[in-house]
Write a structure and sequence with these properties.
Order of helices and strands: HHHHHHHEEHH
Helix content: 40-55%
Shape: elongated
Number of helices: 9
Strand content: under 5%
Strand order of the largest sheet: 1-2
Number of domains: 2
Structural class: mainly alpha
Largest sheet: 2 strands, antiparallel
Radius of gyration: 16 Å
Number of strands: 2
Length: 142
């Protein structure tokens, strides 16, 4: 996660740096460092930021399980943690998923693949790519 993405998610959620630090279990100094690009956003902070945004935006109500979107065959489903834990709406949140028949071992590799996937919530993609909005409002289509 780039500094601009982190700032975008925080502002879109309507949180101050202090509030975001408390939610993520990090110091305010860490949040400032992520936003300035002085420190890389750690995987656990990126993951938690995506999850909090997902919950705040109520994205679960808009989605189908990943195995339905991607038409995963039964042999993939049986090996996949998202299927095992009935977390097809949060497949991007769970490490070790079997995407395209291949398990992904770490968050950095996995999330880059997830961001390109049809099952990844488009609202997270939009927030991640579009930068900053004032007042935490959604961008409008032009």
């Amino acid at each position: 996660m780039k500094a601009e993405e982190f700032v975008s998610f925080r502002k879109r959620m309507g949180k101050t740096q202090k509030e975001m630090a408390e939610l993520l279990g990090v110091s305010i100094k860490a949040v400032c460092s992520y936003e300035q690009g002085w420190r890389n956003v750690p995987a656990h902070v990126e993951r938690q930021s995506f999850f909090l945004f997902y919950q705040k935006e109520g994205l679960a109500e808009k989605l189908k399980p990943c195995w339905e979107i991607l038409s995963c065959p039964p042999e993939f489903r049986l090996k996949c943690p998202a299927w095992e834990f009935k977390a097809g709406l949060l497949c991007w949140f769970i490490n070790g998923n079997i995407c395209n028949g291949v398990p992904h071992k770490n968050w950095a590799e996995k999330i880059e693949i997830c961001k390109k996937c049809r099952a990844f919530p488009s609202d997270i993609k939009t927030a991640s790519l579009s930068g900053d909005w004032s007042g935490g409002k959604r961008p409008t289509a032009s």
